[in-house]
Structure formats: structure tokens, C-alpha cells
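Progress against Task 2.4 (sequence-to-structure conversion) is shown through the following example record, which the project officer requested during the mid-term review.
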Amino acid sequence: MKTSLPPRQKPTILVVDDEQYVRASLTAYLDDMGYRVLEAENGKEGLELFLHQKPDLVLTDLRMPVMDGFALVEAIAAETDCTPTIVVSGAGAIDEAVRAMRLGAWDYLSKPVVNFEELQITIDSCLERAETKRELDRLRRRLSDGALEDETAFGSIITASPRMRTIFLYLESVAPSRQPMLITGETGTGKELIARAIHALSGVGGPFVALNLAGLDDAMFSDTLFGHQRGAYTGADRVREGLVRRASGGTLFLDEIGDLSPGSQVKLLRLLQEGEYLPLGSDKVQKSDARIVAATHADLKGRMELGTFRPDLYYRLFSHRVELPPLRDRPEDISLLTAHFIDKAAALLGKTPPAAPLELNRYLSAYRFPGNIRELEAIIHDAVARSTSRILPLEPIIEAIGGDFRIPASVTTLTSSSLAWPFAGKFPTLKVAEEYLIAEALRLADNNQRLAAACLGISRQALNKRLSRSN
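C-alpha cells generated for the chain above:
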């Protein structure tokens, strides 16, 4: 069955052939498939149209008057390596097709073109390759100069992390693509903020529509995404358009896609592959041009290997992928986020923002943050709510953190310079070894007893007892 591209995507195709009936046949088919078509009767006219109209793909005959297809292919290849040229050669003229490919053609078809399914597959393949090449070129340019073209798209993301900056550069290069995007990362790392940045960078005019898939069974999934017709089931007393239709021309963000049931995975795969869906109670297939951005904290590859997540859906979502680092791997961002959340909480609570105590960042940097940025915001909000002075209280923050410290690498990495063996010539007693290890842990933790105790694997109270005995 022939399928047209989504209505928003209408690539321009230039058809170059000296035979009018051939141009008419190809133009009628391509126009019916939703493409914008340009026509030229020889290579010279085709090259002029190419230079002025910048089509997305060129279909050209090889033997034509004035300027043949070989010269046209060579001229286009010299102008750009991102516009596919498909040559149409006579049946059995393999040598001509090979010559054209060497000059820069991307693919070839036998003339006359009667197998329109083969034509469609060849066009789709070339357009997809061209888009991939453009994305790679954009990414290379971004990474080479390190400059973002649109800083405002990431304005809601507070970071000074070089790792996050590299992610921004990648996203800016792939955002214009309409291919699916998969965002992975632990809970609370900011996946929806990244999805909104992708939407802003894509330049689409449609809305950003978000849905959390956790807890949706097959029926709820279909009804919420695809909508239903009146009378589709008991209680369906009016038409529901569904979120796919609402996201038309924009971005559909599907969070927690790892929780999707097997039946729903099949329906989503069809939407991704064909751009088609079927509202409940309807026998008329609907088309969608919404760009799908999915997110999950789950290990999809692991679930795929266990048989709970479809491999074809996994690889379809894998067109573009970004993994967000946890907050514990972005230590340079902790103080920035803390200051932001203090101001935000104070504004919400109608308070003057309290100042952060000097040791606050040391405690926060040593915490594991299983809930990441979302957890940091909750901890700071609670501390601001309890604040009764101009200084943010440490007690509620330490209480929330508990003993779950993650000692920074600078503390736990013991080298010959950071932890020398001072017992040359004799084996130390337990008491001597203990005193040395306590002193070294305190030094590495900058005399912070809570961190030193975590480094030693004991409670702060146990450390205090040992310090008291040694004094």
C-alpha cells in the first residue's frame, strides 16, 4: 500500500527528463504522494532550477540534449554533498549507472519507471540518508566551535557542567530532525526540560504535549493518545481527539516509556514507523506529523533482553539518544542550583532569601542524591520554609540527607601522596593504625567529622568517641 509522508513534511523533488510524458507520469505520482515537484527538460534548465530552488532531491535522466544527466550529477555533487541525486538509466545500461554513481549520484533506477513502490523506497532511503548526513555535519560544526546558536532554548536549565554543554551541542544539531528522540537518565535529572528544549530548537509551530505513561493500561493508552469516536464504548458520549492529534505539527513527549505494556508498544511502533494511528471506534486511519520524544529512567536494553520491551520499538526510538548525567556527576552545578532554589522557595513563601552557610555545599556535594535535582529542590524548599533567620539552617538539610554520603573521588582516591605508609620498619598496633586513619580521614575531609566518619565507614557518634579516647 502506498503511504504519503506526513502532511508537514513536503520535500521538494526536481524531475529532469527531456521526454514530456515521463515527466508528467513522475510528477503526477510524486504530487499525489505529497511532494512539491519541479520540472526541467534538460540538464542546463535543471541545474538553474537546482541552484535557485534548492530542492531536497533530484530525479534525472542521463541522456538529454543541451546538458546531459552526467554533467548535471557532477555539477550538483560539486555544489553540495547533502542533496541526493537519483539517476534513471535505460534497462541494461549498468555501465552508465556506474559512471553516474562515480560522478556523485546516490542511487539509480531502470527506465521506464513502472514500479512506483521501488521508486518510493529509493526516495525515502535517499532522503533519510541526506538528513542523517546533515545532522552529522551540524554536530561536527557544533563540537568544533563549541558555540550554541540558540542559548535561549536552554535558558530553563541551570548548569555550568561541560558534560551538559556537550549534550546541548548535540541536541542543537539533531533537533531539526523529525526522527524520534530517546532521553534516558535517573529520576529527577530534568528529562522533560530537555524535551522542551528540543521542541524549542526544532522550529515547529505546533504545541508541546506531554504524557506520563506510567500506570496506563492498553485501553487508557489508546484512548488518551489516539482518542475515540462517539459510541466507541459504553460512556463514550462524545468525540475525543486524543493527544496525538493535539500535538499536530509539534512535539509529543512520552515520559516513562519503559512502563509501556506489550500491546501498547505495538500501537506506538505503528505510529513511529508509519505516522498512522486509529482512534477507538473508527475504521479510518489518521495521519500524524507530531515528532515523538520519549524518556525513561529504566534500562530499556536490559528490558529488551528480558523480553519485556520490543526490540523493533527500542531501535526505532534509538534514532537519536541522549543520557542525562545524575546530579552527583555534576558537582559544579550544585551551588548554582542551590542558590536558584533558595530564591525560588523564598519567592513562593514570601520570604527574604536566606544566605547559604559556607559548609552547605560541602554537605550537598558529598550526598548521593538518588532523587537528583528534584530532590535537591525539595530539600532546599523545606529548609527555607523552616528558616527563621538570615542564614539558611543546616539542621533540616542534614536531617534529610541522613548518613547517605557519597565521598568525593578526591577524598576516597588514596595515592602515595595522599596516604603514605608511615610505619616503616615495624607493624603498627591497632591503636596506632586507628589514630593514623582517623587523622588522615579528617585531613581529606577538611576536618568535617560527618564526612570523615562516612569515609571510615562508621557513624559520627562512633568517630566522636574515638576522638575523645585519644584526647
